[in-house]
Sequence to fold (279 residues):
Amino acid sequence: MSIGNSPEDERPFEDDLEEARPSIGRALHQARIEAGLTVDDVSSATRVRIAIVHAIEADDFAPCGGDVYARGHIRTLAKAVRLDPAPLLAQYDADHGGRPAPTPAAPLFEAERIRPERRGPNWTAAMVAAIVVVVGFVGFTAVKGGDDGGTQTQVADGSKPATGKSSSPTPKNSKPADPKPEPSDSAIAAAPQDKVTVQVSAADGRSWISAKDHNGRLLFDGLLKQGESKTFQDSEKINLVLGDAGAIQLHVNGKKIEDDFQPGAVERLTYTKGDPQVG
Fold:
C-alpha cells in the first residue's frame, strides 16, 4: 500500500515565499529602474539625500534615524517611483517588530535639510547708530549756535566780530524705516484677499519646516519648536514642506486647515489665495 503526499506537503515552504518576494530596497530599486529614473532624479524630486536613497535600496535603514523616519522615507520614495507604499510599509513593520509608536521629530530632519535660514539686516543696531548720529549733530549745532550768539553780542557792543561762517540750519531728524513686522494673529484673522497668508504652528511637538514663495525664494528653513509659530505671506502662493506633519497646525487665509496629518509623515503642500484647501 503506497502512501501519497498529504495536501500539506504540497504547500510551498515559507522560505520559498520569502525568496519569491523581493526586499523593500530591491523593490524600490527595480521600480526606479523601470520608471527610467536615476538616484539623483529621485533625490531631487523627494528631497531625500542621495546617500539615504542608496542605503534604503540596499535595505540599510540605519541612516534614516529611526523607524518613524524610515517609514516616511519608504512612503516618499515609493510614491516617487509610482509604487504602492502600503505593501512595503507592511513588510517593513513585519521585519522590524510592528508599527512604531509616534515619536517627536528629531532636531534636524536630515532628509529635508536644504540650507541655513537667511538672516535679515540688524535693524535695531542701525536705529541705535542713527539716533547716536542725530543726537551728536544736534549737540554740535547747539554749541555752534552759542558761539554765534557771542559773536552777535560783540557786534552790538561795537567790537569787531571774529571772522567765521554762520551756522547752518539744523536738519530734521530722520530715522531708518522700521523692518516689516511679521503678521500677527489678528492679521491672520483679517487676511487680505489679494494675498495668501499661511500660519504654521508647532502645536503637538517640534517639526522641521521649509517655506517658499511663488518665485521659489526660500522664506524659512529650520526647526519649529513646540509652541512656536511662523507666518508667511505672498501675492500668489506659499509652498510648504513639513518634516513631521502630525505636530503641525495650519491656518490659511484666516481659516484653520482640518487635515489628519500622521506623526512622522512628510507633507508637501501649496496654498493659494483661493484656499483653504490644499493647492
Observations:
- Strands lie at 196-202, 207-212, 218-224, 229-234, 237-242, 248-252, 255-256, 267-272.
- The first strand starts at residue 196 and ends at 202.
- The chain is about 35% helix and 15% strand.
